[in-house]
Structures are given as structure tokens and as C-alpha cells.
Amino acid sequence: MIASRKEAEAAADRVPGSSLSARIYEPFMWLADKTGFRRWRKKIVSQVSGSVLELGAGTGLNLEHYPAGLDRLVLVEPDFYKAELLAGKQMPKGVEAEIVRAPGEMLPFEDDTFDTVVETLVLCTVGDPEATAAEIRRVLKPDGRFLFMEHVRSDGPRLGPLQDRLERPWMKFADGCHCNRRTVPMLRANGFEVEVTAEQDKFPMPPVARPIVSGIARPEA
Questions:
Q1: What are the residue ranges of helices labelled H in 63-203?
Q2: Cβ atoms within 10 Å of 81's Cβ, excluding its own
Q3: Is the N-terminal amide bond of 211 cis, ω within 30° of 0?
Q4: Predicted TM-score (pTM) of this structure
Q5: Within 10 A of 62 (CB to CB), how many other CB atoms are there?
Q6: Closest C-alpha among 22, 12, 2 to residue 101
Q7: Were both Cys, which of 26, 92, 103, 165 would link to 66 (CB 3.0–4.6 Å)?
Q8: φ and ψ at 205, to 5 degrees?
Q9: Which residue from 50, 54, 26, 72 is spatially nearest to 149, judged by alpha carbons?
């Protein structure tokens, strides 16, 4: 059964977040954006087309990169404080963007609604990544695309185990972010064909939040 907007918003109220973390998010990301993240965001977000859902739109760091001429743009953000900041941002030209508060596990949209779902640094924070992947696949059209950028667990013999040990303290510091998720295998195990288009381990981010991967996932037939 598809959740209503009211049910999704009630669930969003239980997602970790605070006024402080919302205010410091952009300053925290400033150096990474200046040294590469912004370029990656632009490359990913500029590929969207048709009817688009951005999952975990946050405070709106991706807004400037959307192309003109979209049929629809829905910005999903569960955190009340980030959604409030998002609402005050300049929206992309040529489309009336809609802000919806909902967790990734409970998207209040009909099946086969969107041509594109896009997210940057979101699947690390959702409470249930498998349920979120299922929801993304459900709301995508059969020929739709899921565009993503994520930090993932390292395969390195030192960093990977360190991420495992630091997962819980990092979650407390970073509003529920899991630093050791194997996101690409998770997507492949949950009905997506995944093409990793880039991987980078040199961004000025804490070691536990590296490497970064981006890619295109399509629902399996």
C-alpha cells in the first residue's frame, strides 16, 4: 500500500536531524564542493530528464545544476530543518519544484511515476537502504534511471575495518550516516543493473567518508 503524504511526513519526523546540523551542513561541505564535489554534482544532476525526483535534497546544493525544460521536479527531504532551508532557495528555472517531506523508505508516489531519481550522499543515511532501493525502483518507470553519488565502504585492508569500528560514533556525529555501507552491491542485490561511472578517494573528506562513487542504476527487466 502506497503511503499518503500525511503518513510520509509523520515518518519523516522520526528521521535524525536538528536545526544545528542543517545550518552547518553547507559550511561542512564547502571545502569538498570547492575541490571536486560541486563538479561531480553538476555532472550527475545535469543528466536528469523528464519527470524527476531528488531523494534527500537537503539544503539544495544540487539546485543550480538542474537543466531547463523538466516536466516535473519533486524534492524529497525528510529533515524538517533542511526542508525549511531548501524552501528558501532559488529553484531551477522553468519548473515549479515541489518539496515533499518523506523518508526514502516511504515515498508517497504512485508506481512508475518518474523518469529519473537522483541523489547525492543520501543512501548512507537512510534507516533501511534495501527498503529505500525498493521504493526507488517502484517509483521509477521501467525504462527510468537512478543517478547516484555516494561514499561507500573502502575495500582497503586498513580503512574498511576502521570504518566498521567507527560506524556507531560516526552515526552520532553525522545524523545517522553509516560510513561502511556497500551501496553498489546492495543496489545490485535489490533489482538494479548498476554502472559505476567514477570512483575517487582524494576528496578532502574524513577518511571514514571515502571513497566516493557515482553511477547509473536501471531497474532490471
A1: 80-87, 129-139, 159-173, 183-189
A2: 17
A3: yes
A4: 0.95
A5: 24
A6: 12
A7: 92
A8: -115, 160
A9: 54
CATH architecture of 5-219: 3-Layer(aba) Sandwich (3.40)
Which DSSP helix (H) or strand (E) runs through 181?
none
Question: What's the pLDDT tens digit per position in 144-202?
Answer: 999 999 999 999 999 999 999 999 999 988 888 999 999 999 999 999 999 999 998 87
Distances (CA, A) of 26 to 43, 61, 101, 103, 203: 19, 8, 20, 21, 16
Write out the E strands in the chain.
51-55, 72-76, 98-100, 114-120, 140-151, 192-200, 212-219
* Residues counted in the chain: 221
Task: Give the up-direction half-sphere exposure of residue 73: CA atoms within 13 A in the CB hemisphere.
Answer: 22
